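thread: overnight batch results

M.L. [08:02]
morning all. the overnight job finished for the chain we discussed friday. pasting input first so we're all looking at the same thing
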Amino acid sequence: MSAPSTDVIETIVEPVRVDGSRVRRSRVHRMLRLAAADLFRSPRGAVPVIERGMFRQVFLLWAVARATSLGLLWGAYELARSLGFSHGPDGQRIGTFLDFITEWDADRYGQISLEGYPVSLPMNVQGDILPNNWAFLPVFPTLERIFSPLAGGSWQLAGVGISILATLGATWVLFLLLRRTTTPKAAWWAVVFFSFAPLSFVYVLGYAESLLMLLLFSALLLIHQRRYLAVAPIGVIAAFTRPGALAIALALGILFLVRFFRRRVDPFPRIQVIGILVSGALSAAAGLMWPVIAQAVTGTRNAYIRTETGWWLQSVGNDEFIPLTPWFRQAATHLGVIGPILVIALMVGFAMLLWSRSVRRLGIVIVSFAFSYGLYLFAVFLPQQSTFRLMVPLSPLLGDERLSKTKKRRTAIIAGCIGLQTLCVWVLWTVNHP
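M.L. [08:03]
and the structure it wrote out:
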């Protein structure tokens, strides 16, 4: 895919007799050289050729993992029903199991598939726009409407079926991507961790996350293969599936700069230049289009942004939305002075994770996307219980070889994933909103 490290950076040997500032500069220079060597060298141990029978293994993994999620949800459903729990935003008594796994956001998608989007927006007496269906993008409910006749006219069955099948596709494409960026063992265990992750029960709900991951992972695979122009339709569809597709555009922008400045050691043909620019521009334009559509249809200024912040009212009030401030705003509101300090610590921790050598060895494509998606979450989302679900697209980072290095570590992670998934099904679904 790219030139080896010996072609990336020339080896520079500094004399020992240097002053303190020159030593510091040389250390920084050496760190940057090592980082560049990790990011751009051919992936160590990667075997992009897929052995015969690997899809069957991934399919079996997917089937077992999704059966586990459905089993945990069924257990929570039976327990909640026997205790007389209510469920969903309207506090209704729990009905069928299908009702149970298509509540909350899934019910919103179902409403859109049946009725479309509202022309007038609900407001409180202060003029704040209250939560409404404009916060949910149209691709998933459109697919529900298309496939519901095949599911006996049930948008619920259609939504759950789309989600489960999209997860199969996402699992396979993630495996294909990681086989090109890390060792076969690390790639395999990454999809195992992905399949049993604490929030993986979301993959069987009537939610759009599975479809978004299929699209994002497919885009990353195409970018890694340098089929940049093919990313354009995926980026556009993703932009109308779930928020977050702007990260594709930013990652392409970063990659364009990297390829441009490295064009002497890694040729950047005109067709690839055109492909990366077209896909980046179309993905960015599509990612910014939904707020324009919402405002045009409703006639309400900033209808989409004010709809999204409608969910913030009880947490942080009704101040104007300012990018890059929601995390600080939430932390300061509930934790006082220590809140912003914790946010900064999280930012530093995430940066250190991306800077770590094991993650850098996953390559510039995955690292640039992880940085872009992390920046997107930080810039526009208010941290809450849904934040864990929104972080699932960062799953390519599970290819970090440190996670699968030893059998003891792998066993501990899988046990922890299943235990935490059990807890999350109860806490973040049965008694709260994920």
